[in-house]
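Data availability (excerpt). The following record was deposited with the supplementary files.
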Amino acid sequence: RALANLGSVYYDRYMGEEAVDVLTESVDIFRRRLGEENTETGWALGSLGSGLTLLDRDEEADSVFRASLAIYRATLGEDHPRTGSAYNRLGRHLFNQGRVADSEPYAERALEIWRAALPADHPAVGEALSLVGGIRAERGDCSDAEPFLREAYDLRRAGLPEDHPDVAEAASLLGACLGRIGRLDEAENLLSIGYTGLHAANGPDHETTQEARLRYAEFCRNHTCTDAQDVMNAQ
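Predicted structure:
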């Protein structure tokens, strides 16, 4: 497990090659010592899948995430929170690849499991709500996506410090969705909160900051924005 923890540290630092090397070794050790159908093996596989995504080795990551999910289903059962995590990881991976329709059943199953097994205000519930809402928004149904994104935003505001990047990201996602259905004043406010919050928390070059900037800039290209010049200058 120490190797897997080290691999997770490398992953958090975006050191993909190092993460994959260490996590591959960790998976091999768990398989030899504990067997294929063991939760530790499933955990290490999930971490390895995340490392593979940093290297854009998406097909390998897909296979590894599915193997991790299968282990959790076999060992912990369909309704265990860690099984929910494996569903969510696979759903997020597919969504990030642009496989929106493929990602939806996994994301929805994760949300169903976590709602049943965890407190209503648990951060994992907010994470699943955000993914389900993002999927519905991506397929063009923002009216359907809004309740999920709004609940995710409300949960994060209630459970995290005001300046936490997860609060800002949830604001940005909800704002972009509201802009598409004509809720312009609230949309602009949330997009501004999201972009400025992520800029302050993560810096201008972080992936989430750049994504929030693009959402805000797109909105301002189509509507009159109070801070439009600042957003465009940030591009």
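Summary of structural features: The chain has twelve helices and no strands.
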